[in-house]
Amino acid sequence: MEYKDYYKILGIQKTATAEEIKKAYRKLARKYHPDVSKEKDAEKHMKEVNEANAVLSDTEKRAAYDQLGSRYQGGQEFQPPPDWNAGFEYAGSGMPGGDSADFSDFFANLFGQTGYGRKTNRGKMRGEDHHAKIFIDLPDTFQGATRAIGLHAPQQDAQGHVSIKERVLNVKIPKGVKEGQYIRLSGQGNPGVGGGPPGDLFLEVHFKQDALYRVEERDVYENVPVTPWEAALGAEITVPTPTGNVQMKVPAGSQSGRKLRLKGRGIPGGVPGDLYVILDMVIPPADTEKARKLYETMAEELPFNPRNKVGGE
Asked: Lower Cβ count inside 10 Å, N or C end of the chain?
């Protein structure tokens, strides 16, 4: 995916004020509007200008985009990390993906399914709700935990400069929360209007990438290495789980890739998930004389050809 430099598209500095962004957009709109422009590829340029303006003229989108840009190292291919917008607060209830249909894949990937810039009715007395995405460690959902979560709230001063207001909240992670669920913090959204009650803060939960585990709904998967003799003869092995080590039987005659289930050891819930152990057979190296002789003996004594079933020799 190509990275879009919205500041370059509008021809402005990263320190530009809201008024400078507005002036740059109007100037380019007059230049590239398809109804009046005679410029080559005017329609394409107009779409780029509209997209850049949609991001930079919105306080929340701009703050998130600036955060992302600080990680960009240059080059054409760009893939935003999954946690690029972690902790960014935005107001409203979410922006439908259809709002980004006329923009690039870059825009849709970043903003198409979020609530950046979507405002609720300001005439209501109750304050606006805020949303933010957070990442937690997988073990937190097995036991429940209280974690200090840092949040970043974009704000704009009287001159139109965007800055970030930081705050840290102690958040109770409920036992059994799963990917995509929300934690509601009452009264932590925008202040109410005219003495009305404040809005709430909704934290969308995601799990940090884990070297051992991957998650699907409430089920947890992990790959566990086994030796050829454990797979062939059967064995009892120690398997790590998010709640501690457990003993597990490997059935005799197992093959690499076999999936074994530990029922109810997935993410807790009314119906808890399962933990699936996928066997990875690891072949010892023939790096000693004794090891080579053992392999030679196996080759002579075991009439086994794994390619027979596919017609190979």
From this structure: C
